[in-house]
Structure formats: structure tokens, C-alpha cells
């Protein structure tokens, strides 16, 4: 009888653990999710919050990698990249995204630039490269790809953050980024050189954190917006990667206990997933955030249904 009760209790505990999937990473604070599917595995590239409960600013020393094959169990690869990888960098590990292109993995990161001959400081975007999705990664070009002096439409020094990279069907590569304005530029096939001028767009309510992808014939620009305060997730669609972008509305309301949120959208094993962060772990907050994932669903016309934020998370992928 006791053994039966114990088994039942353990089973109940396990079911509770499955039901309370979000946040998906509970042992460290993670932010700015960037999913990538390679072969049969979903890799998740994240920021890492280490600010104390009392601190009132970001402390983000490195980027981390996780993976899953079922959307429930996550393998932890630990820290795989930091601003120290880049000789020109100083400061924190802001949002980043890793993409696969022609046999290599390119991790586009945002951090800050030392004062030197190439820049007088401010936010900058770099590129690390590896032959494997989990590294080791090294600086691909030995200098920043984007520095503050290249973008003058906004006066503040932290505007060149949050890169997202999209490879179109014709293999043309696009880089999007920016705080308070969204910039985009074509990249050369080597992923480390600009292939044209930097363009500036101002989607409605745009703040930061763009994520660009294509589904069927529609292009999506999803971002953290100011539809209300604090940040929500809003989006636009377009007939091409260059626009023109049509505003479609708010898809994610404010998240618990964090004034920022950050989208990462991916299809995996026949389903669509929406990654984001909130501050819902014990002692969590706006500078101690945690990554969650919920289902993403589309209407027949391609518009995105409102995201339902859950503690349960998503069902196991088959």
C-alpha cells in the first residue's frame, strides 16, 4: 500500500513538473531566445542574466546554448560565447541569433565597442562562426560588422542592438537590428560583409528585438513594441524581405514581472512555436529573466493569432 502510494505520488509530482514547463530553464536566468532547427534538433541560443536581486541594470556576461528533440527535455551546453571572444568588445552580452548558412553556423551578437580606431564606443554587432551548432565559436572577422558611427538616425549610443538574420529562398541574406528604429541591410554570401546601404524603417510602435522569417509567401517582422507599457510583441507582414511592411497588430500582451520581452519564432516537427522571456522564476524580474515557449497559431490568411501565455508550456513534439 505504501509503495503504491509512493509511486502515485511520484507520478503526480512528475505530471506537475511537466505541466509547469514554463519557464523552460529554471537553474539560471536566461533571456532573448533565438531558436534554430538543424537536422532533427532544435537549438536554443540565449542571453544570461546574472544581476543580483538588488541591481537595477543588466548584467549579462555571456551567451548560452540549449537543445531539445521533443520540446520538453532540454540539454544544457552551458556558456558557449562571450564578449571576451571579440577583441574589440566590452560590456554585456545583449540579444543574439545564430543561423546556418552553407555549412557553417554564424552567431550574430550585440554588445559594446571599445574606443579605438574603428569606433568611439557604443553598441555594436559582431559575428562569430563555427562548423558546429554548439561551437567552438570564434570571431569571424576580427572586427565589428556594425558600429555606432554607421547609424546616425538616432542619437543614443545603444541603438545598434538585437540582430536578427534571415536567409531568403534565393539565398540572399538580410540583417535587421536596432533600438527605436529598425535598420536592415543585405549581407554578402560570406555573412561578414555588407552588400548594400543600410536602410531605416519605423514600424508602428517599434522599440527593439526584431525577428524576421518567411512562411509560405508572406514575410514577417515581429518585434518588441510600445503598444502599451511595458513592452508587448507586435508585428508586420510584407510581400518581400525588403518590405513594404504592413502593421498587423499586437500578438503578445505584457509578460509577468518583466518590462521587456523578446520574440523567437520557429517551426519544428510540424508545429509553430513562440519563444519569449518573462520574470516569473522565484527572485526573477526585469534583470533576472527566464525563457518560456508557447504554441503559435495562424489564421487562414496568414495573420498570427494572439499568443496565449501559459505555465504549462507546449506538448511533447512527436
TrEMBL record:
Keywords for this entry?
Answer: Carbohydrate metabolism, Glycosidase, Hydrolase, Polysaccharide degradation, Signal, Xylan degradation
Q: Which domain of life is it from?
A: Bacteria
User: What does UniProt give as the signal peptide span?
Assistant: 1-20
**GO molecular function terms noted in the UniProt entry:** hydrolase activity
Database matches in SUPFAM superfamilies: Arabinanase/levansucrase/invertase
Q: Which Pfam families match?
A: Glyco_hydro_43
Q: Which InterPro entries match?
A: Glyco_hydro_43, Glyco_hydro_beta-prop_sf, Glycosyl_Hydrlase_43_Enz
Give the family this protein belongs to, as stated in its UniProt record: Belongs to the glycosyl hydrolase 43 family.
- What name goes with this protein? Glycoside hydrolase family 43 protein
Amino acid at each position: 500500500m505504501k509503495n503504491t502510494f509512493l509511486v502515485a505520488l511520484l507520478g503526480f509530482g512528475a505530471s506537475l513538473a511537466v505541466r509547469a514547463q514554463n519557464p523552460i530553464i529554471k537553474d539560471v536566468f536566461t533571456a532573448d531566445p533565438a531558436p534554430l532547427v538543424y537536422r532533427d534538433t532544435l537549438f536554443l541560443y540565449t542571453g544570461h542574466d546574472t544581476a543580483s536581486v538588488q541591481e537595477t541594470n543588466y548584467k549579462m556576461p555571456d551567451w548560452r546554448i540549449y537543445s531539445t528533440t521533443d520540446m520538453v527535455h532540454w540539454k544544457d551546453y552551458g556558456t558557449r560565447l562571450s564578449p571576451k571572444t571579440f577583441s574589440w568588445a566590452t560590456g554585456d552580452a545583449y540579444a543574439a541569433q545564430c543561423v546556418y548558412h552553407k555549412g557553417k553556423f554564424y552567431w550574430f551578437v550585440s554588445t559594446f565597442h571599445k574606443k579605438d580606431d574603428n569606433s568611439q564606443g557604443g553598441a555594436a554587432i559582431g559575428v562569430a562562426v563555427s562548423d558546429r551548432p554548439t561551437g567552438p565559436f570564434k570571431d569571424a572577422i576580427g572586427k565589428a560588422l556594425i558600429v555606432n558611427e554607421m547609424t546616425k538616425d538616432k542619437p543614443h549610443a545603444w541603438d545598434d542592438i538585437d540582430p536578427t538574420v534571415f536567409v531568403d529562398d534565393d539565398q540572399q541574406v538580410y540583417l535587421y537590428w536596432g533600438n527605436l528604429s529598425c535598420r536592415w541591410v543585405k549581407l554578402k554570401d560570406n555573412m561578414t560583409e555588407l552588400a548594400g546601404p543600410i536602410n531605416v524603417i519605423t514600424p508602428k510602435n517599434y522599440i527593439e528585438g526584431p525577428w524576421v522569417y518567411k512562411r509560405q509567401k508572406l514575410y514577417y517582422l515581429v518585434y518588441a513594441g510600445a503598444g502599451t507599457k511595458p513592452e508587448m510583441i507586435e508585428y508586420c507582414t510584407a510581400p518581400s524581405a525588403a518590405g513594404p511592411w504592413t502593421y498587423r497588430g499586437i500578438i503578445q500582451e505584457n509578460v509577468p514581472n518583466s518590462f521587456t520581452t523578446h520574440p523567437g519564432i520557429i517551426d519544428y516537427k510540424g508545429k509553430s512555436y513562440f519563444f519569449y522571456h518573462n520574470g516569473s522564476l522565484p527572485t526573477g524580474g526585469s534583470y533576472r529573466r527566464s525563457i518560456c515557449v508557447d504554441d503559435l497559431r495562424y489564421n487562414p490568411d496568414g495573420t498570427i493569432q494572439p499568443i496565449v501565455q501559459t505555465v504549462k508550456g507546449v506538448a511533447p513534439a512527436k
